[in-house]
Structures are given as C-alpha cells and as structure tokens.
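[Solved] Which block belongs to which protein?

Original post:
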Amino acid sequence: MAKKKKKKNLILIIPAFLMMGAAIGIQTKDILKQALIGLVVGIIIYFFLKYRNKKLDN
C-alpha cells in the first residue's frame, strides 16, 4: 500500500514545477517561457525519480 501512495505523490511533482515556473514567469514578465521550462524540468525529475525508485525497490 505504501508503494501506491509513493507513486501517486510522485506525479504531483510535474504540476508543482509548472506552478513554480509560472510564478517565476510572473515576476520576470515571461510567464509562458518560464512555465514551459518548469514543465520540462518537472517531467525530467519525475522520470528520474521513477527510475530511481524502481532501482531501489529491486
């Protein structure tokens, strides 16, 4: 049961980075660019952590 909760929480990383990128974009007046950068970084980190967790579980 703990593994399912970990995987469910892991997907929340993507929108968190998207929102952080948007917040930075609001401050720098370049919201779309920063939001896209946040989305890409969130996806990269999601796959990295998914791979790491799979490796640790084995």
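(Second protein starts here: sequence line, then its structure tokens.)
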Amino acid sequence: MMLSKIIFHLVFFCFYIAGYGQGENQIKLRYWNGTTDGKGNTNSFGLKVSAINIPINKLELVYEATLSGQPPKFYSKKKFVLFFTIENTGINDVAIYDWAFKAVCPVDNMGREFDASSMIPLVTPYIPTDIYIVLKPNEKKQFYSSETDFYWCLPQDVKKDLLHDPKYFQALITCASVIGASAPVKNGQKQGTYQPQSKPPKEAGDTIDSVVEKLVGEHNALIQKNENEKAEMLREEILQIVSIAFPAQVGLVNSKLLKSETPSEAKSSEPSEKSMLSFNGQTMEAEGDCIDGMVSLTSNNESTLLTLINLGNSSSYVVNSNFYTNGCTDCLAIQLQDIINSKTYIATGGTVKKTSHGIIIDVTMKEMMSIFEGSDFSYTVMGKIVCE
C-alpha cells in the first residue's frame, strides 16, 4: 500500500513537471501591463519588462479654425519617450521571437485615468524576422521608443489631458521558456545575436519649449496693439498649458509675458496698498497679478517671481508640495523663480491667508532638485500680494 502511494506521488509529480514545462516552453504571445515608473512586471517564468517615462520639453501645437479677427484657438500635445528594459530574472533561458509595445493614454473619453482600450503603438527597435534571440538568466536588452504623442487618444478634455505623461504601458512579446537543450523553432527562424539600437532623446534642459515661446510672442504682440482682452485670454491658455506640461517653468514663462496697463492705472497718483516679497533675507517691492486661481508676485527689479497655482476661494490654506511630488493637479502649488540664478524653489510647508488687504504668504521653500535628492536645507519666503 505504501509503495503504491509513493508510485502515485512520483507519477503525479512527473506529470506536473511535464505539464508545467510544456506550457512554459510553448511559443506564445504573452502580455505585460505595467507602469512607467521603472518598477516593471514579471511573468511566471521570469521575463521582466519595465518602462521609464523620459520627460521632453516639447509640445506640438494644433490650431483650430476661428472666425476672422478672433483670438487663436488651439490645443497642445505633449511629446514623450519611453525607455524599455527586457530582462530575464528566471532560472531558464528565454527565447524571444518578436515584440511590440504600446503606451496607454493618460485619460480616456470618460475622464478616467486608465483605460486599457485606449493605447498608442510605439515605434521601437524590432527583432529581425529571420532570427530569434535567447536571453540567459540575468541578461537584458534596453532601448528607447521613438518620440511620439497621444494623437489618437480621445480624452474628455483635449486641451488638458494631452499635456499629461503616460502612466502605463503594454508589452506584447512572443516568447518561450527554454526548458531542455534547445529553444523551440518558429517559422524557420534561427537563433541569432541582436543588440537593439535606439537614439536617446535630447536632455530637457531649462529652455522654454518652442511652442510656448511662440505663444508668448503672440500674447506680447497683442499687448503692444492694446488688444488686452484677447491677450488676457491667451495668457490664461499659456499659463494653463505650462502649469500642466512644465510646472517648473511657470514662473519663467510668466516673467516673459508683458503686462497690460489701463489708463486709470497709469494716471493714478493716490496711495494704495503695496505688494512685497521677502526671500533669502532680502525684502523687495513687488507687483501682484491675480487671474482666477493663478496668482503671481514679481519683484520690481524683475529678479524674482513667486507664483501660486490652484488658489481657490478659501480664506486660508495649509501649504504642502503634493502638486509636484504626488501628482495632485488640484492642490495649491507655490513656486519661486530666481531668474538671475536660474533656480526654482517649491513650497513644502507654511500658510496662505486671504484678507481684505491682500494675500499673505508665509512659507518654507526648498530648491526643486533638492526635494528629490532628500536635502533638508530650506528657505523662508514671505510676501503680500495686492491684486491689481
């Protein structure tokens, strides 16, 4: 009786191993769905696929038809590149016959952040049709996708949603685990060596995107022609685009936008409440500007620009950095642009209060890069914004 049980268990074990090996050794199209944060996704026999979004300071502008004499209507699409890593983290060799990759649109037509049916094919280096490649354990292939945008997405808000980066990707790989002496053969392919070639994107740098630069020029031309109403509409569009696509450059772009001056402002000699800005031990007279949820404070010497994004109707706020560090697009964000030294600072704590005399700011700020590097060094920034 004991011998029969042992034989049964051995037969079952051998059947399980054979079944497992047969399933993993089959040439199949397999899917990987992952996030673009580099964490990756690994299948049952150890093939891991990961992707990292590479930021690019580039937009593509699409103009819409307008009536003669009306301000331009447009929307912008943000460019992006994904960097892929295909790695064998298992114990067996893995044969790969072909692959394809897709990026998932950031928002679908119902306003949802993820919808697996909304994808765009990516152009990546492809495996030649006459060979397959074999990845040994711990071996990997890495490459960039070509530069692209979400042209075929149909989001709920075209003007905003196409400015966001992709959060998800999908990889479609025809592959098999090599269980045994050699890999299974597909359509006469032979095993070959293959190193995917791809050109990395240019570094983002601190330059303003050419599309934004063009829009700034159009705005300033309207100001010079005293077409202030059209200019104001365009200014709001520009700052909205930049706040989503390039939030670190809001202050820099705002400093390039000319300000309109009404006759009453030019002739007025009556004393009024003054705006001020204190940063790094220096107190400066400044000029405030308020448009809906976008508020700015520019020092009179134009060396420093403080910007508040998503300022609502509340009388007081507790400040944090969630807009920049946690992707909270509705949170209050405060940043300071040191224009002379080309540095950007982000508020990480403090308060903002609205009074009858203006907006009072008392916050702690850190240099943008130091937040991600874990530095504890911070600055105190205080200001008073009198909206003009």
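Accepted answer:
You had them paired correctly. Confirming on the second one: The chain is about 20% helix and 35% strand.
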